[in-house]
Amino acid sequence: MTFSILAGAADGVTGNPSWAMLAYLIAGVFFILALRGLSSPATSRAGNRNGVIGMLIAVATTLITHDIANIVEIAIAIFLGGIIGVTVARKIAMTSMPELVAGFHSLVGLAAVVVGLAAWLDPASFGITDANDQILLVSRIELGLGIAIGAITFSGSVIAFLKLSGKMSGSPILLPARHIINLGTLTAILAMIGIYAVSPDGGAGEGYLIIAVTVLAFLIGFLLIIPIGGADMPVVVSMLNSYSGWAAAAMGFTLGNSAMIITGALVGSSGAILSYIMCKAMNRSFISVIAGGFGAEDSGGASGEPREQRPYKQGSAEDAAFMLEQAEKVIIIPGYGMAVAQAQHVLREMSDVLEEKGIEVKFAIHPVAGRMPGHMNVLLAEASVDYDKVFELEDINSEFATADVAFIIGANDVVNPAAKTDKSSPIYGMPVFDVDKAKQVFFIKRSMGGVGYAGVDNDVFYMNQTVMLLSDAKKMVEEIVKALD
Fold this sequence. Notes:
Elements: H1 2-7, H2 11-14, H3 18-37, H4 44-65, H5 71-91, H6 97-121, H7 123-126, H8 137-164, H9 178-198, H10 204-225, H11 233-255, H12 258-281, H13 286-290, H14 317-326, E1 329-334, H15 336-341, H16 344-356, E2 360-365, H17 375-382, E3 390-392, H18 393-396, E4 405-409, H19 418-421, E5 440-445, E6 466-470, H20 473-484
Parallel strand pairs: 1-2, 1-4, 2-3, 4-5, 5-6
């Protein structure tokens, strides 16, 4: 997407020949096929390939059909960007993938802001002026909206990156009168874009309007994301993905680049649809999340409060292995702790051993397990877990009543019954797995001192059928596999 923004910067200068429009249409088809492929782990590789092919067609077409001022500089920029992208992709750990995605979203937003400001400073070079060398009315609206959406995407993604990487608390930061501040700021941004659009010749005040829109948009991006808690962060990542698409689409209209419009619209709409689906799965209000935690309780959450010391049962790898061998049906619930420990491969090995002993094994994936949509699916696919063994919450939740063992590894919030019983909890209303209905529960976590990302204690720790396995997830599963062998 960023390449599309940068490569389209001269699109309005010479116009597009008919074959170029056909090439952009073909690129759009590949982007649609990419989204279709990425909807399932089984076809995700093909989806990625289609996305790469589509972007290559779009960038190559733009470079060929436009009078680029310095093609050497463009080539060097693409080469350096490609090297950085490949290096980061090869070295990044799966546990850091969510913040990497948020970081990439911020770059897309920043690129939209830079291109928008460049078009404002030198509109003639972008072909968006009239006979009097004034920026066209429609271009003023597109330019202002593109800068605003891009700035919101950038600053919001920075906050998401800080929260996801642990450099900033995942708990909601609730400012006094935050809804009034947010609505007032958004209204001011739209009003200034409107004033700028109808200004006859801009004048001295034009510069102040664009700068003010940019600054306020950066500010509202921060304000919209800081009130959103850790349990909702996967929705935030999806939402920011949507914002980045709309920012690119707005710049596509400004630059007259069909590929950017198509790509931006696809990314924006698919991100919005995914956000809505995830909100429905979490019993969250879509408007609530995109409005920056609108309606959230100012005093919700138990993070930072002293926890009551309650009795619990602690077991060993040998205890878990013995009970697993006696089971007929085991449901494994992975979470972010599995990702941190990089335990997905040894977990698959454990499931293979159990299946060799005639035990039915299934994996239960919550829509918001991890730090981004599909995080657990990606990890299990990386470990070569068969797709037909992986089930979403609505497909497997009823099976816990017939399960002999619920094996929880690194998950917390997605199995916390407080979501169903405690109206003061920050995760109240979020559908969770009914692990309390299983005959036996094994819960792997590092220590009893930690809580989930939402910062609340979990009653599952203290149930009669729960045995806590306090250790590094990978080490514990390795010991269980040895005991099974």
